[in-house]
Amino acid sequence: MAMSLESGQGEYTLDGTVDLKGNPVLRSKTGGWTACSFLVVYEVFERMAFYGISSNLVLYLTNKLHQGTVDASNNVTNWVGTVFLAPVLGAYVADAHLGRYWTFVFASVIYLMGMCMLTLAVSIPSLKPPPCQTSCPPASTLQLCVFFGGLYILAIGNGGAKSNISTIGADQFDELHPRERMHKLSFFNWWTSSIYVGTLFANTVLVYLQDNVGWSIGYGIPTLGLLISIIIFLAGTPLYRHRMPQGSPFTRMARVTVAAIRKWNLPIPANGKELYELDLEVYTKKRMLRIDVTNSMRFLNRAAVKGDSNTKWALCSVTHVEETKGILRMVPVFLAMFIPSITVAQSNTLFVKQATTLNRHIGPHFQIPPASLGAFITISMLVSVILYDRYFVKIMRTWTKNSRGITLLQRLGVALFLHIVTMVVACLTERRRLTVARSHGLDKSGGQVPLTIFTLLPQFVLIGLADSFLIAGTIEFFYDQAPESMKSLGTSYSLSAYGIGNFLSSFVLTLVSDITSRKGKGWILNNLNASHLDYYYAFLAILSFLNFILFLFISYKYTYRVELSESSDVVRGVQEATDGHTELKT
Question: Residue 553 CB: number of other CB atoms within 10 A?
């Protein structure tokens, strides 16, 4: 029974995906948008839970746990940094041991435990500090341990789940099937849209409940939502396609690096076919993809050179060498994502603190919760992603002949440029706020500035527009460019960059605060009316500009990985393996 790859009539998937027992899966009964619908619903509820905590966390730390502006902001960014670094651990466990599905399930249970602990911390009287008006005593050790313990348990679980859920979603589309491949190009845009829906609910309804009804309700609802989302995810299990764990990517990368160093004095053959490689049948039998040798980072090719008996132990296959190159090739792009992550971190910290100083009234009785301005980030992102996927890509595709409209790195470049614009606008807006505050003598009293909270709207909308390119762009770039056996690790790159950016935000904020305080008037004080956040935002704009120049150089030097459809050996090998399996079944 011969099958044509181009026609897409194959009964079984061609990309190596299997069921939970490791058997090939039928295309018609698994994967696609049907399977993804369960994952998207999970993501809506999960984002509602995460942003239900993170959006208003800086205000809980300052108003309830009585922390200062710098300490509270740093605690938020350190925690968010942990959330987005934990995916590295989740990716390792998934790729090396449990697989993406089971790693996600166990991580989600840990996530739920953290949410329950946080809900108890804000609900039980003995676990929360008493209300106060002027001189507020610091929270007790027990109160801090329970609250921050819940936060960091949540962080570990969230990170393990986060590194695998979007990868599981992308695995539902067969890279070697023409129609499914086209759907996969839109997957990350719609996946990001699901993130925005949950975030929007958190930034509006949950934030309002936390500020006006109670933190118990504001934390209890997303905890219940997370439980429901896990049940929904499990309900879709029969429809999911899976990839089997293929050993630790870190071990393979370390082995290739050591082997290349060990054989530094051996010549590299001009003909790549002279390098050591396993037979194609070995890969097709394991439903894995073989990668042809390339000339990039050529020194690593020594790991696949057949040396004498003393170096035989260090002999690596070309595929493992190329997998290592694929991960290392993304490192400069990974580093360039740190600075935009610092600017994004301001939206949950200093932007929210700015909002507390402005007039939040709409009518005589209703006040906008400060963190609710984050809803405009979400709305801006949601509208931008829909317009990007439905119109921008189609228009650009006719000009560039690129199936994505613009390249992956061009999409990231737009995001980095918009982050520069965002920080410039934030600087100018803050300068206006400070001018009004000082003209009314509020720099000394610290009272409410007679400006509407919507004065901050442009910077929130702009950061949402920038993130519509950045978030979907980074996830898609690191997933797409990672080797097939290291997709979870590749996805964790995008999340870890944001995590490191948050830690850097804490470092930069503390450093600037300390340096400027020594010189007299600090840039970041508890009384924002006496601060100079405009200087701080200008500093971040300069950092963003320098990072953008560096990114342009990195993009110019970057070499994209060869698409699977362009590798005849891969296509032929997988198709032959699938044909053989189908004939056996029939």
Answer: 11
Distance CA 47, CA 38 (A): 14
The share of the chain scoring above pLDDT 90, in percent, equals 17
Per domain, the residue ranges of the chain are 27-245+331-569, 249-324
Prediction pTM value? 0.73
Quick one: tokens of 84?
């987005």
CATH number for the region 27-245+331-569 comes to 1.20.1250.20
- The model's pLDDT over 227-263, given as tens digits with 9 standing for 90+, comes to 999 999 999 999 888 887 776 777 888 888 888 888 8
Mean pLDDT for the stretch of residues 398-409: 84
Tokens for 287? 């439903």
- Would you say 1 and 581 are in contact if contact means Cβ atoms under 8 Å apart? no
Would you say 510 and 70 are in contact if contact means Cβ atoms under 8 Å apart? Answer: yes
Least confident of 73-82, 214-223, 244-253, 340-349: 244-253
- What is the identity of the amino acid at 97? H
Give the DSSP H or E segment for 255: helix 249-262
End-to-end CA distance of the chain: 9
* Three-state SS sequence of 465-533: HHHHHHHHHHHHHHHHHCCHHHHHHHHHHHHHHHHHHHHHHHHHHHHHHHHHHHCCCCCCCCCHHHCCH
Helix 215-235 vs helix 99-121: angle between axes, to the nearest 10 degrees? Answer: 160
Contact 449, 438 (CB under 8 A): no
| 493-503 per-position pLDDT tens digit | 777 888 888 88
In whole angstroms, what is the distance from residue 466 CA to residue 380 CA? Answer: 9
* Cβ partners under 8 Å of residue 471, min gap 6: 192, 195, 381
